[in-house]
Amino acid sequence: MGVTIKDVARESGVNISTVSRALNNGYGVNQQTREHVLAVAVRLNYRPNRVARGLVTGRSHSLALLLSDIRNPFFAEVARGAEDAALAADFDLILCNSDLDAGKQMQYVSSLAEKRVDGILMNSVAALNRAQREQLAGLGIPIVLLNRSVGGGPFSTVCADNETGGALAAQHLLDLGHRAIAHITGPRQHGNLSDRERGFLRTVRAAKNRVHAVVLRGDFNFTGGAELTAKVLDRYPKVTAIFAANDVMAFGAARTALERGLKIPDDLSLVGFDNLEFSSIIYPPLTTIHQPKYEMGQAAVEILLRLARGTESQTPEERRLGVKLIERQSCRKMA
Ligand code: RIB
Asked: pTM score, two decimals?
């Protein structure tokens, strides 16, 4: 059994409530007593029991980050930003992978609620139906959605400007003279993806010259990128450029090109989305849309902590972070 608050009280010669107030900077403890109690606590190597404290305060000093799959390095960077911001405020961060499975997602949420987490960040989670949104709102736990927007719902959201990102990718390919472009992407119900697609299509449709644009949907991962690229090459041989909805899909596209003996960018130009660290390391380095991943994690925790404090505005906030084109060597200029 470790040192308890009772041991500190006995050794300091004061009662438990005074020790608690001295250690928590509470009221009614003079400076001399506070310093004495702190010195005793340090000497005895006392560690407060947060679980016991949580039973009294109803708080656990922990936040949860629920995301689809940490194996996509995009999430690792978001998680770092979230964790650093949580730690700076003396909160722990619990990581949960939902695999875009709505059932698993809701199971995690109820287990986290039972653990009395102080807030939940839901990053790129499965689309929420009305009942699930109501269930989440009814939990009474602050929730911030990352990478998803619920259009005026009860939750705060943090997103990159995905539509502008899609437009920047399309414009870059148009400026290089591409006139047959494929966009490979994931399921339609993911708002961040449909925003990228909308920006892409709006831009190609507004082009001065006629552009042939196709959109193909599949799994939003490396394998999906590889398979969709094979379909593009088989069905649309005139396509000279592919805009992949994220960098991991672009890596899959590059793998298919390699297997078919095609060179990037000589035979096929490629643009990704995310700007993962690997994207500058692979050959050829990938042209992509940068989204501020670390800052998105930080911003989401910042909003969550404001909501968790409960003393400030509880009005849902929609924060949109800027994106930019990072031009590398995976696209060529058409003759
Ligand atoms: O759902 C994961 C994807 O959404 C990431 O690759 C990133 O593009 C994010 O916006």
From this structure: 0.85
